[in-house]
Amino acid sequence: MFMKKMYFIFLTILITGVLVNCSDTANDVSEEFLALKSPNDFVIANSIDELEAMLLSSIEKKFEPNVYFEITKISYLDVESGVVANIDYITGSGEESNIILMKDFPYKVICNAKKMNGLYEDNSKGGGWSFSCSGEECCKVHAVRNLDGSVDIDCSCAGCTMTIEPTVLPV
């Protein structure tokens, strides 16, 4: 009987330790995936709430007014100056998409989408820009840095419409 009690106490302590450790690890991972500062020390927002407020207009155009969404990951292109950030999000209905934010990027950006082709020159002095794609469920925006420093931005599948909007990012 004593061994059963000791075994039960040991098992309870072990499970509690694992659960606490897993929850701490999950918090560390989410903070890592939601870094508001780029590797070259450019801050895209002062908080996740501020970033969500900046993105709301673009996301509402893709889905509907007052759409609930949550940012799931922020990643950055390796650029020498300025910032090119890819922000992944999921809506309350489970639809996943993304937005590219860009500011103070001194190189050319070539945008390619079925309904929008052209050359984008960064407006380094007047704020940043957001790029998003809408249409089919597969419509997501991609950004790729070229060897010459320029960036190609396109939508992931045919039938998408690219939207480029001015976005105010922190100075």
Characterization of the model:
- It is a single chain.
- With 171 residues, the chain is an alpha+beta fold.
- It is built from two helices and nine strands.
- It is globular, with a radius of gyration of 21 Å.
- The protein is 27% helix and 35% strand.
- The longest helix has 32 residues, at 2-33.
- The strands form two sheets. It has a five-stranded antiparallel β-sheet, with helices on one face.
In short:
Helices cover about 25% and strands about 35% of the residues.
SSE succession: HHEEEEEEEEE
Beta fraction: 25-35%
What's the number of domains? 2
Overall geometric form: globular
User: If strands are numbered along the chain, what order do they take across the biggest sheet?
Assistant: 1-2-3-6-9
Q: Helix count, per DSSP?
A: 2
Residue runs with pLDDT of under 50 for 5 or more positions = 16-29, 114-126
Q: What is the C-alpha radius of gyration, as a whole number of Å?
A: 21 Å
Mean pLDDT: 75
The biggest sheet amounts to: 5 strands, antiparallel
> Helical proportion?
25-40%
Q: How many β-strand stretches?
A: 9
Structural class: alpha+beta
Distance between the termini: 67 Å
